[in-house]
Amino acid sequence: MSAYISNDLNMVKELDPQRHELALLQEAYLNKGGTIEVLQGPSFVPPPVRHEPPMVKAKPVEEKPAVVMRPTKMTLREIEREERAALATKARAVLVEQVKKLAETMSYAQAMERTGLSRKILFTMAKEHGFSFQPAGYRNGWSANRGTIDEALDAKLAERIKAFKEIGLSRNQAQGQCGITFKTFVRILAKFDIDYPKRQAGPHPAFFPKPAQS
User: Fold this and answer.
1) Is residue 168 part of a domain?
2) Residue 58 lies in a domain
3) Ordered DSSP codes for 82-130
4) Residue-wise pLDDT tens digits, 150-170
5) Residue 170: inside a domain, yes or no?
């Protein structure tokens, strides 16, 4: 720490007695064999040179290719289901137009013989799409068109019934798939000599008598 030196002469003169007294005390201490060690003051050490690291250019960010989401199995199933539903809707629309055209000149009975569809299906189509069939041209069970059979339609129904037999459908299931009445189904079996087995009843459940109540 550096001493403060005043330029004022009066202050310097005021400190002379103190310096004189300090010099006498120092001299007496040395005469008694004492030593005075002069301590080295603090030295200024410059800080180490700081070396800045070289500037490194940042690498350009590579653009990753866009991730393409592949359809999952569930998505494929939904697509296939929608496609089947669209095809079924289109096929039904074509069938409705055909039946609607027949309804302009035919009754329910005639349309049933022509298409092989049941009366219930024809009635539902007519109700949903706003058309009606011609009234029946008979009274008291007599019909001028009764007995008219479409041979091509019968042959087509026979082929379908044979196919349903091969895959193991029951009679009721085959009749439902063809959309025909039971009477028409039996007539096709007899006409084309189709041996369609009837489903046998399963085994009866075991019977255990109830214990007698006391």
Assistant:
1) yes
2) no
3) HHHHHHHHHHHHHHHHHHHHHHTT--HHHHHHHH---HHHHHHHHHHHT
4) 888 889 899 999 999 999 888
5) yes
Domain-terminating residue out of 114, 136, 158: 136
Residue of higher predicted confidence among 6 and 45: 45
Tell me: do 131 and 81 sit in the same domain.
yes
Q: Which two tokens stand for residue 190?
A: 């007899």
Residue 26 lies in a domain: no
Quick one: tokens of 100?
């609607």
C-alpha distances in Å from residue 56, one per residue of 49, 53, 60, 106: 21, 9, 12, 91
Query: pTM of the full predicted structure?
Result: 0.33
Residue 142 has pLDDT above 50, yes or no: no
CA distance 128 to 96: 10
**Average model confidence (pLDDT) for the chain?**
76
End-to-end CA distance of the chain: 122
Determine contact, residues 140/162, Cβ cutoff 8 Å. no
Q: Note down the domain range covering 122.
A: 73-136
Query: Domain tally for the chain?
Result: 2
Distance CA 66, CA 63 (A): 9
pLDDT in tens, 36-58: 676 666 677 777 777 777 776 77
